[in-house]
Protein backbone atom coordinates (compact mmCIF):
# COMPACT_ATOMS: atom_id res chain seq x y z
CA UNK A 1 0.00 0.00 0.00
CA UNK A 2 1.00 3.63 -0.12
CA UNK A 3 3.55 5.10 2.26
CA UNK A 4 1.26 7.97 3.26
CA UNK A 5 -1.71 7.93 5.60
CA UNK A 6 -3.97 8.15 2.56
CA UNK A 7 -3.48 4.43 2.06
CA UNK A 8 -6.14 3.86 4.70
CA UNK A 9 -8.72 4.32 1.95
CA UNK A 10 -6.84 2.21 -0.62
CA UNK A 11 -8.50 -1.06 0.28
CA UNK A 12 -10.77 -3.46 -1.48
CA UNK A 13 -13.15 -5.18 0.80
CA UNK A 14 -16.39 -6.15 -0.78
CA UNK A 15 -15.24 -5.97 -4.40
CA UNK A 16 -12.52 -8.55 -3.96
CA UNK A 17 -14.66 -10.78 -1.81
CA UNK A 18 -17.61 -10.91 -4.18
CA UNK A 19 -15.86 -11.01 -7.57
CA UNK A 20 -13.45 -13.88 -6.93
CA UNK A 21 -14.82 -17.34 -7.76
CA UNK A 22 -16.71 -19.04 -4.94
CA UNK A 23 -18.14 -22.39 -3.97
CA UNK A 24 -19.37 -23.90 -0.73
CA UNK A 25 -22.25 -25.70 0.90
CA UNK A 26 -25.86 -24.74 1.44
CA UNK A 27 -29.09 -25.61 3.22
CA UNK A 28 -32.61 -24.84 2.09
CA UNK A 29 -32.29 -21.26 3.33
CA UNK A 30 -28.61 -20.38 3.59
CA UNK A 31 -25.29 -20.87 1.85
CA UNK A 32 -21.64 -20.64 2.92
CA UNK A 33 -19.00 -19.98 0.25
CA UNK A 34 -15.18 -19.96 0.26
CA UNK A 35 -12.63 -18.42 -2.10
CA UNK A 36 -8.86 -17.98 -2.37
CA UNK A 37 -6.60 -16.42 -4.98
CA UNK A 38 -3.03 -15.40 -5.80
CA UNK A 39 -2.34 -12.16 -7.69
CA UNK A 40 0.81 -10.42 -8.92
CA UNK A 41 -0.40 -7.14 -7.34
CA UNK A 42 -3.30 -5.79 -5.29
CA UNK A 43 -5.11 -3.32 -7.56
CA UNK A 44 -7.56 -0.90 -6.05
CA UNK A 45 -8.85 2.33 -7.52
CA UNK A 46 -6.10 2.51 -10.12
CA UNK A 47 -3.28 2.05 -7.61
CA UNK A 48 -1.21 -0.72 -6.07
CA UNK A 49 -2.39 -1.37 -2.52
CA UNK A 50 0.55 -3.71 -1.84
CA UNK A 51 3.53 -1.63 -3.01
CA UNK A 52 3.61 -3.75 -6.19
CA UNK A 53 4.04 -6.97 -4.24
CA UNK A 54 2.27 -10.22 -5.08
CA UNK A 55 -0.57 -11.05 -2.69
CA UNK A 56 -2.68 -13.93 -1.43
CA UNK A 57 -6.36 -13.16 -0.87
CA UNK A 58 -9.33 -15.15 0.33
CA UNK A 59 -12.65 -15.02 2.09
CA UNK A 60 -15.69 -16.73 3.55
CA UNK A 61 -19.25 -15.58 2.80
CA UNK A 62 -22.59 -16.45 4.37
CA UNK A 63 -25.78 -15.61 2.48
CA UNK A 64 -29.44 -16.18 3.37
CA UNK A 65 -32.38 -16.45 1.02
CA UNK A 66 -33.87 -13.39 2.73
CA UNK A 67 -31.12 -11.28 1.13
CA UNK A 68 -28.94 -10.89 4.22
CA UNK A 69 -25.25 -11.74 3.89
CA UNK A 70 -22.07 -11.45 5.98
CA UNK A 71 -18.46 -12.40 5.53
CA UNK A 72 -14.78 -11.74 5.94
CA UNK A 73 -12.01 -11.18 3.39
CA UNK A 74 -8.24 -11.10 3.98
CA UNK A 75 -5.31 -9.94 1.85
CA UNK A 76 -1.60 -9.82 2.42
CA UNK A 77 0.01 -6.40 1.85
CA UNK A 78 3.48 -5.00 1.17
CA UNK A 79 6.57 -5.97 3.12
CA UNK A 80 6.24 -5.16 6.82
CA UNK A 81 2.61 -4.01 6.53
CA UNK A 82 0.90 -7.21 7.59
CA UNK A 83 -2.59 -7.95 6.35
CA UNK A 84 -5.87 -6.28 5.57
CA UNK A 85 -8.86 -7.95 7.24
CA UNK A 86 -12.33 -6.91 6.09
CA UNK A 87 -15.54 -7.72 7.97
CA UNK A 88 -18.83 -6.92 6.29
CA UNK A 89 -22.58 -7.44 6.34
CA UNK A 90 -25.34 -6.28 4.05
CA UNK A 91 -28.66 -6.85 2.39
CA UNK A 92 -29.53 -7.44 -1.27
CA UNK A 93 -32.95 -7.12 -2.88
CA UNK A 94 -34.67 -6.53 -6.23
CA UNK A 95 -37.08 -3.72 -7.04
CA UNK A 96 -38.35 -2.31 -10.30
CA UNK A 97 -36.13 -4.61 -12.35
CA UNK A 98 -32.99 -3.39 -10.52
CA UNK A 99 -30.66 -5.23 -8.12
CA UNK A 100 -29.78 -3.33 -4.92
CA UNK A 101 -27.03 -4.00 -2.35
CA UNK A 102 -26.67 -2.03 0.91
CA UNK A 103 -24.16 -2.75 3.68
CA UNK A 104 -21.27 -1.88 5.97
CA UNK A 105 -17.63 -3.02 5.84
CA UNK A 106 -14.93 -2.58 8.51
CA UNK A 107 -11.28 -2.54 7.38
CA UNK A 108 -8.81 -3.77 10.02
CA UNK A 109 -5.00 -3.49 9.69
CA UNK A 110 -3.36 -5.43 12.57
CA UNK A 111 0.20 -4.22 11.81
CA UNK A 112 -0.65 -0.53 11.18
CA UNK A 113 -1.61 2.13 13.73
CA UNK A 114 -4.61 4.44 13.19
CA UNK A 115 -5.51 2.95 9.82
CA UNK A 116 -8.73 1.07 10.67
CA UNK A 117 -11.96 2.52 9.31
CA UNK A 118 -15.46 1.58 8.20
CA UNK A 119 -17.54 2.28 5.08
CA UNK A 120 -21.23 2.19 4.39
CA UNK A 121 -21.88 1.28 0.77
CA UNK A 122 -24.66 0.93 -1.72
CA UNK A 123 -24.91 -0.31 -5.30
CA UNK A 124 -27.52 -0.73 -7.98
CA UNK A 125 -27.26 -3.14 -10.90
CA UNK A 126 -29.10 -3.63 -14.16
CA UNK A 127 -28.10 -6.63 -16.25
CA UNK A 128 -24.29 -6.58 -16.62
CA UNK A 129 -24.00 -2.93 -15.47
CA UNK A 130 -23.62 -1.49 -11.97
CA UNK A 131 -23.04 1.76 -10.10
CA UNK A 132 -21.86 2.04 -6.50
CA UNK A 133 -20.91 4.53 -3.78
CA UNK A 134 -18.86 4.16 -0.57
CA UNK A 135 -18.81 6.62 2.35
CA UNK A 136 -16.27 6.52 5.22
CA UNK A 137 -18.55 6.49 8.26
CA UNK A 138 -15.90 6.05 10.95
CA UNK A 139 -12.09 5.99 11.12
CA UNK A 140 -9.29 5.77 13.70
CA UNK A 141 -7.95 8.89 12.03
CA UNK A 142 -11.15 10.95 12.19
CA UNK A 143 -9.94 13.29 9.42
CA UNK A 144 -10.81 10.58 6.90
CA UNK A 145 -14.46 10.46 7.86
CA UNK A 146 -16.57 11.58 4.94
CA UNK A 147 -14.27 10.31 2.20
CA UNK A 148 -16.19 8.88 -0.76
CA UNK A 149 -15.64 6.59 -3.75
CA UNK A 150 -17.93 6.40 -6.79
CA UNK A 151 -17.80 3.61 -9.39
CA UNK A 152 -19.60 2.46 -12.53
CA UNK A 153 -18.79 -0.66 -14.47
CA UNK A 154 -19.90 -3.83 -16.13
CA UNK A 155 -19.10 -7.51 -16.63
CA UNK A 156 -19.74 -9.06 -20.05
CA UNK A 157 -19.40 -12.59 -21.38
CA UNK A 158 -17.47 -12.43 -24.67
CA UNK A 159 -17.58 -16.14 -25.40
CA UNK A 160 -18.39 -19.10 -23.13
CA UNK A 161 -15.93 -19.18 -20.21
CA UNK A 162 -14.30 -15.81 -21.08
CA UNK A 163 -15.61 -12.53 -19.63
CA UNK A 164 -14.62 -8.88 -19.95
CA UNK A 165 -14.97 -6.43 -17.05
CA UNK A 166 -14.52 -2.66 -17.09
CA UNK A 167 -14.72 -0.04 -14.37
CA UNK A 168 -14.49 3.75 -14.08
CA UNK A 169 -14.31 5.45 -10.69
CA UNK A 170 -13.69 8.65 -8.76
CA UNK A 171 -12.07 9.05 -5.31
CA UNK A 172 -12.72 12.06 -3.04
CA UNK A 173 -10.42 11.85 0.00
CA UNK A 174 -10.89 13.94 3.12
CA UNK A 175 -9.74 16.10 4.87
CA UNK A 176 -8.37 18.10 1.94
CA UNK A 177 -10.71 16.80 -0.80
CA UNK A 178 -7.85 15.15 -2.69
CA UNK A 179 -9.39 13.59 -5.79
CA UNK A 180 -8.46 11.32 -8.68
CA UNK A 181 -10.13 9.28 -11.39
CA UNK A 182 -9.28 5.64 -12.07
CA UNK A 183 -10.21 3.00 -14.63
CA UNK A 184 -9.56 -0.68 -15.27
CA UNK A 185 -10.13 -3.33 -17.91
CA UNK A 186 -9.82 -7.06 -17.35
CA UNK A 187 -10.31 -10.51 -18.88
CA UNK A 188 -11.17 -13.66 -16.94
CA UNK A 189 -10.94 -17.21 -18.23
CA UNK A 190 -12.98 -19.74 -16.23
CA UNK A 191 -11.83 -23.36 -16.16
CA UNK A 192 -12.66 -26.50 -14.22
CA UNK A 193 -9.54 -25.84 -12.14
CA UNK A 194 -10.09 -22.17 -11.28
CA UNK A 195 -10.18 -18.73 -12.88
CA UNK A 196 -7.25 -17.01 -14.62
CA UNK A 197 -7.41 -13.21 -14.88
CA UNK A 198 -5.46 -10.40 -16.54
CA UNK A 199 -6.19 -6.80 -15.50
CA UNK A 200 -4.98 -3.39 -16.64
CA UNK A 201 -5.56 -0.39 -14.33
CA UNK A 202 -4.47 3.24 -14.13
CA UNK A 203 -5.35 6.59 -12.59
CA UNK A 204 -4.80 10.23 -13.53
CA UNK A 205 -3.08 11.63 -10.42
CA UNK A 206 0.69 11.21 -10.15
CA UNK A 207 0.92 13.90 -7.43
CA UNK A 208 -0.90 11.89 -4.75
CA UNK A 209 -0.59 8.28 -5.89
CA UNK A 210 1.49 6.62 -8.59
CA UNK A 211 -0.15 6.92 -11.99
CA UNK A 212 1.98 4.19 -13.57
CA UNK A 213 -0.15 1.63 -15.42
CA UNK A 214 -0.63 -1.68 -13.64
CA UNK A 215 -0.83 -5.09 -15.32
CA UNK A 216 -1.85 -7.87 -12.95
CA UNK A 217 -2.17 -11.62 -13.46
CA UNK A 218 -4.27 -13.63 -11.05
CA UNK A 219 -5.42 -17.16 -10.34
CA UNK A 220 -8.34 -17.99 -8.03
CA UNK A 221 -10.00 -21.21 -6.96
CA UNK A 222 -13.06 -22.14 -4.99
CA UNK A 223 -13.61 -24.91 -2.48
Show the helix and strand layout:
Layout: H1 14-19, E1 23-26, E2 30-39, E3 43-44, E4 47-48, E5 55-64, E6 68-76, E7 83-95, E8 98-108, E9 117-126, E10 129-139, E11 148-159, E12 162-173, E13 178-191, E14 194-203, E15 214-222
Antiparallel strand pairs: 1-2, 2-5, 2-15, 3-4, 5-6, 6-7, 7-8, 8-9, 9-10, 10-11, 11-12, 12-13, 13-14, 14-15
CA-based shape? globular
Q: Uncertain segments of ≥5 residues (pLDDT<50)? A: 1-23
Tell me how many strands there are: 15
Structural class assignment: mainly beta
Distance between the termini: 28 Å
Helix count, DSSP H or I runs of 4 or more residues: 1
CATH class: Mainly Beta
Largest sheet: 12 strands, antiparallel, barrel
Overall mean pLDDT score? 87
The secondary-structure element order is HEEEEEEEEEEEEEEE
Q: Give, in spatial order, the strands making up the sheet with the most strands.
A: 2-5-6-7-8-9-10-11-12-13-14-15
Find the CATH topology: Porin
Q: What is the name of the CATH architecture? A: Beta Barrel
**Helix content class:** under 10%
Query: What percent strand?
Result: over 45%
Number of domains: 1
**What's the CATH H-level superfamily name?**
monomeric porin ompg
Radius of gyration based on Cα positions: 17 Å
